[in-house]
Write a structure and sequence with these properties.
Strand content: 25-35%
Helix content: 10-25%
Order of helices and strands: HEEHEEHEEEHEEHEEEHEHHEEEEEE
Radius of gyration: 20 Å
Number of strands: 19
Largest sheet: 6 strands, mixed
Strand order of the largest sheet: 10-11-12-9-3-13
Distance between the termini: 40 Å
Shape: globular
Length: 349
């Protein structure tokens, strides 16, 4: 259903991998726009799950780490789904609508999360799940001047509102919904819409001289900021406290799947490893050991080349070894561990 969008993006110079635009041939300009003005990222390959019926809020409240059941339509938040032993399944965003909740989830993780949720829907529960990924599209405006775009398209009521706040709007005579938040620590907004109007909305926004941004640049930005990703930092090897997602965890909302393990980790200072950033002059691969005096204290989980010729990476390092500023060896290179804006290491809620 996104053929028209893909055709338009091809005309704009998009390079595709598995039907996902990974670059528009101007990665350095896209990074600069996301950092200094505004860029447009096509997130349509991310998953979208509709959770509906009368028990939807209580159900999601009991399945994930954030507080949901007291929230109202028009609100939203990020939340983490974990196993009973607090291993990470996904980092998702929940948007509350009048009759449902829309979950946006990591690419290629929709089926897994739907199977996880379905397992906990019992006979008397009034909860329904639907995969809306193919019927919808999703874009993000990323950058400090993104509020000017939102104001220009008539959604100024969102300016200054909390993360996840959302409302309906019209772009190029198409009905869309706009939410506060870019998916990164960078200011921005997320827009979702029916798939059949995606090309019209994309054309309208890029005609406003907004720089299109491919998945490769998103990967650079999320590593620079420390947003953990499925298959890298978010796996069943790690829990959300280790992944620096303390800001998405309620420690007083009561029981939910994985809550007991998370509470014990907090109470007994049981976070054995933590996520940090590194900047490298030379390439390394995922799983490269992080060492101190030839002793392995961690591993590389993500790495990507930057337009400057340097490399950025994310690493897990044992908590007892140290934190920000710790000097470690990765490959043949000595570097310092860096704290990053997306990560938190203490209770926020």
């Amino acid at each position: 259903m996104l053929q028209d969008l893909r055709q338009l993006q091809t005309q704009q110079g998009a390079i595709f991998e598995d039907q996902v635009p990974v670059s528009f041939g101007q990665d350095a300009a896209a990074i600069a726009a996301a950092q200094a003005s505004v860029a447009l990222y096509d997130r349509s390959h991310w998953g979208r799950i509709e959770v509906s019926d009368a028990d939807r809020l209580n159900f999601l409240h009991n399945q994930s780490t954030h507080t949901l059941k007291l929230r109202q339509p028009g609100e939203g938040c990020d939340t983490v789904f974990v196993t009973s032993t607090a291993r990470t399944i996904d980092l998702a965003t929940a948007y509350l609508l009048e009759q449902s909740v829309l979950l946006t989830v990591s690419p290629q993780n929709t089926d897994r999360l739907m199977q996880f949720l379905d397992r906990y829907i019992f006979f008397a529960d009034k909860v329904k799940l639907a995969d809306l990924t193919q019927q919808t599209a999703m874009f993000s405006l990323i950058g400090p001047t993104s509020h000017e775009i939102v104001q220009a398209i008539g959604a100024s009521e969102l300016l200054g509102q909390p993360y996840g706040s959302h409302q309906t709007a019209r772009i190029a005579d198409c009905d869309v919904r706009i939410a506060v938040g870019s998916g990164l620590a960078t200011p921005g907004y997320t827009i979702w819409m029916p798939a059949h109007v995606a090309a019209t909305v994309w054309a309208y926004l890029t005609d406003m001289a907004i720089t299109p941004l491919g998945d490769r640049v998103w990967e650079q930005l999320r590593i620079q900021q420390g947003r953990p990703a499925i298959g890298h930092e978010l796996t069943e090897d790690y829990n959300p406290l280790e992944a620096g997602l303390w800001h998405l965890i309620s420690f007083n909302k009561g029981c939910y799947i994985g809550q007991e393990t998370i509470a014990r980790l907090d109470t007994y200072n049981g976070v054995k490893q933590q996520l940090w950033g590194v900047q490298l002059a030379h390439p390394v691969t995922v799983d490269t050991p992080v060492c101190i005096n030839e002793e392995k204290v961690g591993r590389v989980t993500s790495v990507i080349a930057e337009p400057s010729g340097n490399y950025r990476g994310l690493v897990y390092v044992r908590t007892k070894a140290g934190g920000a500023g710790l000097r470690v060896t990765i490959g043949e290179e000595m570097v310092d561990l860096l704290d990053l804006p997306y990560l938190t290491r203490a209770k926020q809620l």
